[in-house]
Amino acid sequence: MNAQTETNSRELTYSEAIREAMDIALGNDERVILMGEDIGVYGGAFGVTGDLVEKYGTDRVMDTPISELGGAGVAVGAALTGLRPIFEFQFSDFATLGMEQIVNQAAKLRFMLGGAVSVPVVMRFPAGSGTGAAAQHSQSLEAWTAHVPGLKVVQPSTPEDAKGLLLAALEDPDPVMIYEHKLLYKMKGPVPAGHYTTPIGKAAIRREGRDVSIVATAIMVHKALEAAETLAREGIDAEVIDLRTIRPIDRDTVLASVRKTGRLICVYEGVKTLGVGAEVSAMVAESDAFDFLDAPIVRLGGAECPIPYNPQLEKAVVPQVPDILDAARGLTKGRI
Amino acid sequence: MPVEVIMPKVDMDMASGKIMSWHVAVGQPVAKGDPLFDIETDKAAMEVESPADGMLYHPAPEGTEIQIGQPCAWLYAEGEEVGDQPAAFGAAAAEPAPPPEPVAAVEPVRELAFTAEPALEKPRATPRARRLASEAGRDLTSFVGTGPRGRVQADDVLQALAPAPSAGFTAETGPLSITRSKGGEGTPIVLIHGFASDATSWAPLETHLRHRPVIRIDLPSHGKSPKLRIRCFADLVKEVRAAVDDLHLDAAHLVGHSLGGAVALALADTRPRKIASLTLIAPGGLGPEIDGAALTGLCNATRVESLAPWLRRLAADESLITDGYARLAMASRNDPALRHAQAALADVLFPDGTQAFDLRAALDRVDMPTRIIWGKRDAIIPWSHALRAPGKVALHLFDGLGHMPQIEAPDEVGKIIRSLV
């Protein structure tokens, strides 16, 4: 991969950063192809692919039929032949139709063929609630794929990481699932120009603190940071960790933080039960960091119900800043 | 049929109460209305009267949490056969238990079924606290837990192991200092002074109370009392209550000033039958506000020049605080250990210049004649806290007095107390 040399950084939106990553990859490596429903002339349901079809043509930016199982299957097959496909599910919810290819094929072929092949496919999943798109277009199902050995699963929370993780995913010999929160697409942030990668499997400490560790994913990172500012004014010093990758989870960073603060809040938008926070909590409870806990672990996750259409309810079923504030205050003031 | 002794509901939001101690031994008689046991809830500690005449059997072990409305002991009539415990503690006894068999031989002791939370064999503690205690080679039971449900947390262990800088004093043990007047007849008056003061501060008022025996208590870390490590307001009350219990008085009139007023109120709440009347002078515990700067100033002053300005804040008429008075006050505070102990106490009771304890519910509960005396120019605790008292409490509000009516106008205050005592 020929890394470009520019390093100056500009403000881009999250979706522009992803498009730039795809543009760089398409330009640098002719094995890279884009596939997905309406990603060609239409530019993608969320406009992420934009006009890349005009630059690279329909042989490399391919509209696929309305069959997630078919599309994902072709992408997995293309990867087996040596290409580097980036497959976009229009909504992550629809990936449920393509699970056979993800879980039974992409994740397993390397193991089943004794390492003779690998499946270097990248799949993009626009996920999350907050757009008023209701039960079938708002889910956060990242824990589904994170449950499967053989896959890598990332959740970038910033434009910089959205680009860096996508470029890292393309360099990875195995299938990488990228969950992009739909509300983040318009979020702006500094993005270095040119080619760079953000390491898969490495969390980022977004704010250092000593009183409580808040381990968050995707859009919850921003809610945690907002809560941390309020908490700081109350004398509560919160550490905010952006997991970035949920398979494999950056165990060392989480455990080191808990050893320091003695208190843990996990915040994630997926349904609370059996979600990412359950894994992080169990990881801490099973480790030596357990002996450093000075309060029970708190998980803040999505409610046990489909995402409602009513905007008030839609907000109410996923963790919000006041929920994080309550948890942090409760833990540090000895109420929990 | 034995009479059930029920855990009473003494607080609006109380779900259960902890049995602290039984006043009567198993098998001993108790009369209806006599104090039977002490309970403690999240907010208060109090005495519970016996619901009937009888012999006490099957009392729940001390330290047990019992749900309200549930049995915690049984009273048997004289001659009544005592068999198995009729029902489990805390469990609703839906059907009356069948009368015990007359030939009930000695039954093997059976496990008591608690539906209330059983007493834990191990102390409740966080992993971090356990690790710290184990590293220090200390048993967890040697720490007082301040977390939810008494959970020992890291801070509890750290504070106990290394005294915090503000608590830089050596904790002593021993009973509180008690002084008694000579003469006087009838029910004695017990005086409890305020923070950073001591028993000698009652001298001006005492000349008006000579008709009754007067007993003065020095609070822990005050006057001649030992410097005790107090962890919370309830701790303080416990020490004073033990001192008052040791006096074995049939009854007492209780007078308390400021912090001593709060202690007096808490005492009256837990020993209602012993307290004939309650006089609270500018008491604490009725609202969060207090002049934190004055508390710090009084605690920390090491010479007359730094003490006098804070003393003057206590009185409405500054001229009452003469240089001689300030010198005398400083002389009683010359011991640095005493000042450190009081600073540590202030840190616990009044963190960040806030009264960390709330006795408004206790004031609603107490039933003996009670009055509040306050100066409307009080610069330490707002006199308007008095307005939170329920209607049954008499208010005596003085326009021209400050935080120490008993020193600023002893004759007026004496007259009020004498009218009831």
Q: Strands, helices and their partners?
A:
The complex is a heterodimer of chains A (336) and B (421).
Chain A: E1 9-13, H1 14-28, E2 32-36, H2 52-56, E3 61-63, H3 68-80, E4 84-88, H4 99-106, H5 109-112, E5 122-127, H6 142-146, E6 152-154, H7 159-171, E7 176-181, E8 188-192, E9 204-207, E10 212-216, H8 219-233, E11 238-242, E12 245-247, H9 251-261, E13 264-271, H10 276-285, E14 298-302, H11 311-316, H12 321-332
Chain B: E1 3-6, E2 16-22, E3 29-30, E4 35-40, E5 45-49, E6 54-57, E7 65-67, E8 71-76, H1 127-135, H2 154-161, E9 178-180, E10 189-192, H3 203-206, E11 214-217, H4 233-246, E12 252-257, H5 259-270, E13 275-281, H6 292-300, H7 304-314, H8 323-331, H9 336-349, H10 360-365, E14 370-375, E15 394-398, H11 405-408, H12 410-418
Parallel strand pairs in B: 10-11, 10-12, 12-13, 13-14, 14-15
Antiparallel strand pairs in B: 1-8, 2-4, 2-7, 3-6, 4-5, 6-8, 9-11
Calculate the terminal CA-CA distance of chain B, rounded to whole Å. 44 Å
Report the uncertain regions of chain B: 91-117
Q: Assign the CATH superfamily of the largest domain in chain B.
A: Alpha/Beta hydrolase fold, catalytic domain
Helix content of chain A: 25-40%
CATH top level label of the largest domain in chain B: Alpha Beta
* Classification by helices and strands of chain A: alpha/beta
Instruction: List the strand order in the largest sheet of chain B.
Output: 9-11-10-12-13-14-15
Strand coverage percent of chain B: 15-25%
Tally of discrete structural domains of chain A: 2
Uncertain runs of chain A with pLDDT below 50, 5 residues or more?
Answer: 1-5
How confident overall, as mean pLDDT of chain A? 96
Order of the strands making up the biggest sheet of chain A? 3-2-4-5-7-6-12
Please state the average pLDDT score of chain B: 85
Number of strands of chain A: 14
Terminal Cα separation of chain A, in Å? 51 Å
Put simply, the count of helices of chain A is 12
The CATH topology name of the largest domain in chain B reads Rossmann fold
The main pleated sheet of chain B reads as: 7 strands, mixed
Q: How many domain modules of chain B?
A: 3
Helix coverage percent of residues of chain B?
25-40%
